[in-house]
Write a structure and sequence with these properties.
Layout (H helix, E strand, L loop, with lengths): L2 E7 L6 H13 L5 E7 L10 H7 L8 H18 L3 E7 L7 H10 L6 E4 L2 E4 L5 E7 L12 H11 L4 E7 L6 H20 L2
Parallel strand pairs: 1-2, 1-3, 3-6, 6-7
Antiparallel strand pairs: 4-5
Helix pairs in contact: 1-6, 2-3
Amino acid sequence: MTTRVLVLTSSILDGNSLALAEHFKAQLAGRDDVAITTRDLIADELPHLGLPELSSWQVPADERTPEQRELAARSDALIDELQAHDVLVLAVPLYNLGIPSQMKAWFDRILRAGVTFRYTEAGPQGLIEGKRAAILAARGGQYAGTELDSQTPHLKHMLGLIGITEVDTVFAEGLAMGEAQRDAAMGEARQAIDGLVARL
């Protein structure tokens, strides 16, 4: 049985989060039981979500105008791609204590009420089942476990909203705090990634 892995990258720089993603993929190279798809959210940048696109989702498919069909197809294709994979890997730099806006634009099209989650009397219920995720987080400073790390809970909450609750996190931190610190942090992160890969 083949495990299908979707890797999302989101760095505007030739940076450390990309290096973590490449290491993850390199550890899987040659394995016949794993298939990898990479989506570069910078090279294939999505526009910010606007009202016309949001409204297109509310119209029944057979009643949409040509423009609405085109707009809705963007979200539909991304959700179909996610559904077709077993593991989601998010390679994420930290920009101003948050995620890159390009990744937020992806999530804005994945988090769709009635499609990937629904509202119930007990609260939101995720409709994406049987999937797991890994966050590969690269940061210039050291934030994990502090109040300043708003990025990690944000990502886990968004994933949890659609039903992905099994989430591993790899941190490479202090990358702007000197070469020795950077090398040590990246080395530890690569070892952690090796552990994740071994469980695939």
